[in-house]
Write a structure and sequence with these properties.
The chain has about 180 residues and is an alpha+beta fold. The chain folds into two domains: about 100 residues, Immunoglobulin-like, CATH 2.60.40; about 70 residues, no CATH class. It has three helices and eight strands; from the N terminus they run ββββββββααα. Strands 3, 4, 5, 7 and 8 form a five-stranded antiparallel sheet that branches. Strands 1-2-6 form a three-stranded antiparallel sheet, with no helix packed on it. α1 packs antiparallel against α2 and α2 packs antiparallel against α3. The longest helix has 18 residues. The chain is elongated, with a radius of gyration of 20 Å. About 30% of the residues are buried.
Length: about 180
């Protein structure tokens, strides 16, 4: 079984993702295998400027921080990645020799804002709070967000399910349900 040699974390403000790679496979000599890093956002490939590490030192952590603009998928029309914020499901893949490891991260600041706004609206609804659908909407978005993060955890690693949950939560956030009075 290969060791997990990559991790990815996102800043609380969704402005940057930090990827950490630990070179060195059991039984390989130092500098024997170059490390290749690739990434996707919502299933679309991202061109990374910093993606090849030809002479890794075994056990020495390689840390790379990417901003939203650096992690925007390049389209044929634009040829440049432009993104105002990190949003969606990001998966990083490191290849070292025959070993491939992945790490995923959910950029969900838009969902967090949706949850907070729905709770604020729920609290300010003039009618009986038990009749307002705001709390139910916030709960659904929260649970879908948590489920997407679980799908990206080291134990599960299912980015397709994470993306489906993220998209459903985004869809729910875009709908309006009013106070329900």
């Amino acid at each position: 079984m290969a060791t997990k040699n990559i991790s990815a974390t996102i800043t609380k403000d969704c402005e940057a993702i930090t990827v950490k790679i630990i070179p060195g496979l059991v039984g390989t000599a130092e500098n024997e295998n170059a490390i290749l890093l690739s990434a996707t956002r919502n299933g679309s490939p991202i061109t990374l400027n910093n993606s090849v590490f030809p002479n890794p030192v075994v056990g020495q952590i390689i840390t790379i921080t990417f901003t939203a603009a650096e992690l925007s998928p390049v389209t044929a029309a634009s040829q440049t990645g432009v993104a105002a914020e990190l949003s969606g499901v990001y998966v990083f893949r490191v290849t070292e020799g025959q070993t491939i490891s992945t790490a995923g991260v959910l950029a969900a600041c838009t969902l967090d804002c949706c949850i907070a706004n729905e709770i604020n609206d729920y609290m300010s609804c003039p009618c009986d709070s038990t009749k307002s659908p705001k709390l139910e909407k916030a709960t659904k978005v929260f649970l879908l967000r948590e489920g997407a993060e679980a799908d990206l955890s080291a134990a599960i690693q299912n980015p397709d399910n994470a993306l489906a949950k993220f998209n459903k939560a985004t869809e729910i956030c875009a709908s309006s349900c009013g106070c329900g009075c």
